[in-house]
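Form P-L/3: holo structure prediction, ligand fe (iii) ion.
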Amino acid sequence: KLILSFETSCDETSIAVIENGDTILSNIVATQIDSHQRFGGVVPEVASRHHIEQITHCLNEALETAKVDYNDLSAVAVTYGPGLVGSLLIGVTAAKAVAFAHDLPLVPINHMAGHIYAARFVDQFKYPQMALLVSGGHTEIVYIESEYDFKVLGETRDDAAGEAYDKIGRVLGVNYPAGKTIDEWAHEGHDTFNFPRAMEKDDNYDFSFSGLKSSFINTVHNAEQREEKLDTKDLAASFQQSVIDVLASKTERALADYPVKQLVLAGGVAANQGLRDRIEKDLNQKFSNVQLLMAPLKLCGDNAAMIGAAGQVAFDHKKRTDMSLNAVPGLSF
Ligand code: ATP
Ligand code: MG
Ligand code: FE
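OUTPUT (holo model):
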């Protein structure tokens, strides 16, 4: 059972071939970071153009690396949202063309469901299951009572965690995307600033990161005005500790209220070493009966392998679409 999967929701053009939903035969990822870095973020028009230039190369490479032919495939899976409309459309159009030309079933995939399935390459999924989804555009706690049945318990009311990392990174002069560098600096500093932990004790599963971001930016600007030099490593450590504290405490709250067999940690920010260590420690100490499935580091960011893993399950659940499939930029679960 082979799935050919397409992911073009943001600034990565990615195509993969996945066998039986859990084995990667190929996972080609063409990133555009260099082109967006000088703008400090993803420029949608630039992203679309890159996808157009890359998509056929990625497709050929994905099939060649996997050593398979179109005749070997069972289905085509594609991210149709959420994401940038121009970017999504390139993947959707390419996937439709392949499905039509080779008479293959076309399976529509939600990008965020895809992020969860990055953890499928670690172990089999068991239900009920919880997911902490932290990425550039989303921060969500998702309850999955049974296979492919997603319910969002809580989400960010303003900035996503990754977005906050990228914005404070900019203030410190770190290139986009800033998460990895801030994470490294955080490990060399200490939480001396004690930034706010918004909504940490509130009786819900929601998040807010814009207050933390403002507090951080004000602290840096005020120091600049006084011509005072702040310790960059301590700033990074303080910011990261605040993010991790709220992510961990809301996840614990959800696990206490909704008993589950597994916790999935996924999305770009799931690559954060501080977060991985903290969630692992919390589960060991307080929820030792919950299995932790952390998306492999290489599959935390956007990639088509995770879309193929989700695609196999969606295909088994008879999810299909036809040539009328359109991109849905604001798609939710
Ligand atoms: P979404 O999935 O919500 O549509 P996206 O696809 O743009 O958004 P991802 O590719 O999943 O987001 O994740 C990218 C984000 O992850 C960026 O904001 C980046 O700074 C962040 N990130 C990457 N590595 C780390 C890290 N080690 N620590 C914190 N953040 C990180
Ligand atoms: Mg990206
Ligand atoms: Fe993503």
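COMMENT: The chain is about 40% helix and 20% strand.
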